[in-house]
Amino acid sequence: MGGPELPRQQEPSLGLADVAQFYGWTSSIEDVITRMQDDKTGGVPIRTVKSFLSKIPSVVTGTDIVQWLMKNLNIEDPAEAIHMGSLIAAQGYIFPISDHVLTLKDDGTFYRFQAPYFWPSNCWEPENTDYAIYLCKRTMQNKARLELADYEAENLARLQRAFARKWEFIFMQAEAQVKIDRKKDKTERKILDSQERAFWDVHRPVPGCVNTTEMDIRKCRRMKNPQRVKKSVYGVTEDSQSQSPVHMPSQPARKTTKDDVRKQLYTHSFHLCIFSFLFSCYSLITYSDQYIDYDPFITPAEPSNPWINDDAVFWDLETSKEPSQHRVKRWGFSIDEVLKDPVGRDQFLRFLESEFSSENLRFWLAVQDLKKQPLQDVATRVEDIWQEFLAPGAQSAINLDSHSYEITSQNVKDPGRYTYEDAQEHIYKLMKSDSYARFLRSNAYQDLLLAKKKVSVGKDMLASLKGAHLQLHKGRTPGARAAC
Domains of the chain by range and CATH? Predict the structure, then answer.
């Protein structure tokens, strides 16, 4: 043994600073972790392991870590090296990828290094709102790989009850993080998911495991100063010490005053406004990316811009009953794009007629037409629509729920341009959720796209063949051209 024997103690009372000083390290434990990952100075070999059907990226074995500790820290007894590695793992600097138990084993178990972002030196005391966002995000991701354990599912249900009033905010933030994560590389996302899981294994450990943060001196100091603003994993900060629905506090909480409630409401409202603003910006960017090809200020009109020349082909294409592929593609954005395009409405109506459900669209169009009628014709038109679509034994009866039907029946007694507003909204939702989705998958819509592609390809091939023929004709002698 290159040094005095360490006490065999598994509780977190033995601090890492004491262990570092005991071995004469001039820097913190994190410098040792950095050296362990440095290939240039003989660090632990980090490699990608091929599994049966996939690859496991950026892992090391427990044996490699034990051997590195024995070699670089002058430890002769493997048991001491395992003890040292377990103390490091208990703080979350290294973690196993197969389970949630933060200990080091001298075998082929795969381990991964924690990202510096989650190191304990950041002095984070994560709130239960952070934990709720994490668990909620896990339920939205790959269930086969990130399925909640039983104790996590219980914690999620407990947190949902505790934060019932702001659960919508938590769900929205988790949903936004999932959208961002899906844009990342698959390998990178797998590594980050495991590192985030290890962070919570430290701060919300598996029942029965040692909680290394329970008696932390930093936590005790913050309990004496509850007004200190705490750093949060996901950017959510709270000014006051909140009761934990997962881990009950050891001391009774101070009675909440009106000022505390007012401050919490203001803070939560502010966070919700900020997130709503960011979500609106994201929606605007998504909308802009989707419609960029249809913005004449950004994408020039094809075949030519009628606003800057005398070519009227663009207007002819817009009024044509045979829409271009560019126009047909736009119908797939939303049902509104179909309904506001006359050709789109005709194609949609033909599809519904093939499914014997055209009465929904005809009712919707009739109500739209009613809103444009002169006032003296409104009452007659309201009665005609009622007899055609809603009266008992109507020829083209539509399917309304009882609530909408009752409201519409009362409105018909005092007819107006907006008598059928509730019924029209109900039919619109039916078409949007059912008929429109089937229309996009139908052969009628797909044929419109493919037909335009085939015509375009045929014209390109004809133009290329014609050009080749002209080039060949120019290269021949006059006699040969005459013979041709």
Answer: 14-122 (1.10.10.10), 298-450 (1.10.167.10)
